[in-house]
């Protein structure tokens, strides 16, 4: 609810950085904003799902657990740079790997793609 309020209160917001904010079992985090071109958020989302409905997003940086990211279901038409530092506290399942591959397959116009942390364990 906080992020939806933020995007409706700041309709021209194009760059959002969230770092050091711990969110426990909040259910749904909605980062939707048509004006957002840059989104970076660090670890701190514990439990819940993420909605990324940002059609003009050009930069995405994420550090944290794999599962909220997989639930985002976003098309990344204009994404040019993505940096993912994933954690997977449990052993990844084949289903996780397939979902992760589907997630990154939406990033068709990347000029830079960085994978860090447990990211490679997820896809291998």
Features:
124 residues; alpha/beta; five-stranded parallel beta sheet; 4 helices
Question: Outline of this structure?
Answer:
This protein has 124 residues and is of the alpha/beta class. Helix content is 24%, strand content 31%.
> Helical proportion?
10-25%
Largest sheet: 5 strands, parallel
Total strand count, please? 9
Average pLDDT for all residues: 76
Descriptive notes:
The protein is an alpha/beta fold. Helices cover 24% and strands 31% of the residues. The chain has helices spanning 2-9, 66-70, 94-105, 119-123; strands at 15-18, 23-24, 28-30, 38-41, 45-46, 49-51, 59-65, 81-87, 112-117. The chain has a 5-stranded parallel beta sheet. The protein has a two-stranded parallel sheet with strand order 2-5. The protein has a two-stranded parallel sheet with strand order 3-6. The radius of gyration is 14 Å and the shape is globular.
What's the structural blueprint in terms of helices and strands?
Elements (H helix, E strand, L loop, with lengths): L1 H8 L5 E4 L4 E2 L3 E3 L7 E4 L3 E2 L2 E3 L7 E7 H5 L10 E7 L6 H12 L6 E6 L1 H5 L1
């Amino acid at each position: 609810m906080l992020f939806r309020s933020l995007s409706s209160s700041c309709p021209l917001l194009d760059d959002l950085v969230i770092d050091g904010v711990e969110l426990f079992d909040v259910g749904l985090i909605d980062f939707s904003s048509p004006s957002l071109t840059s989104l970076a958020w660090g670890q701190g989302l514990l439990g819940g799902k993420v909605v990324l409905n940002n059609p003009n997003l050009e930069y995405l940086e994420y550090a944290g657990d794999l599962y909220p990211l997989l639930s985002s279901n976003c098309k990344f038409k204009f994404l040019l740079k993505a940096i993912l530092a994933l954690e997977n506290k449990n052993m990844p399942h084949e289903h996780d790997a397939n979902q992760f591959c589907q997630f990154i397959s939406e990033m068709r116009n990347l000029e830079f793609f960085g994978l860090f942390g447990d990211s490679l364990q997820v896809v291998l």
